[in-house]
Amino acid sequence: MSRIQCERCLRPQTHCLCPLIPSLDSRTRVVLLQHPSEVGHALNTAKLAALGLRNAELRVGEVFEDLPALIATPGYRVALLFPGEDAQVLQAYSAQAQALPWLLVVPDGTWRKARKLLHVNPLLAALPRVTLSEVLPSRYRLRKAPGEGALSTLEAVVQALNVLEAPVLFDELLKPFEALIEGQIAAMGREVFERNHLR
């Protein structure tokens, strides 16, 4: 018998995160493109980002045929939030005279799956890229990071918004994420967590 799920956060009702999910306004528009393999994942951070930001949208798929319409939102500069050699470092709006707000397109999946999304969506790969000048350490203690500076999708979005919209902070978005991680650690047992993840 399957457990009853919350229709909003997709967590079991006994572990619903909705009371912790904020509803935050942002100048920046965030479009999250999620690989289908992430949808059923217990740590679905893109879903938390979409639920916590009023100016965000989550799409699931591999090929996004409606991408031209998604990124054609007037009044925004469009960029892919993804590292790359030519990626422009994000700066606070206050440091840019009369700059249009960003529409950040954020691929969500493992690094391999995120790169696949770029490969099968040439328009996505062709977008100008933006990145963070300084990456704060990840709080994602349950997945091994593929390299230095790797973040979950939610953490990348929070850090980008904290830079762009300073002095406004979006750390409240991390509350359900931290509760989710603590819940997973409790479920597996502290001893198992320390043996398998604290290395």
TrEMBL record:
DTW domain segment(s): 2-189
Position of the signal peptide: none
Pfam families: DTW (PF03942)
InterPro entries given in the database record: DTW, DTWD2/TAPT
Keyword entries, A-Z: S-adenosyl-L-methionine, Transferase, tRNA processing
Keyword Oxidoreductase part of the UniProt annotation: no
Entry superkingdom: Bacteria
Top class in the EC scheme: transferase
EC id: 2.5.1.25
Family assignment from sequence similarity: Belongs to the TDD superfamily. DTWD2 family.
Protein name from the UniProt record: tRNA-uridine aminocarboxypropyltransferase
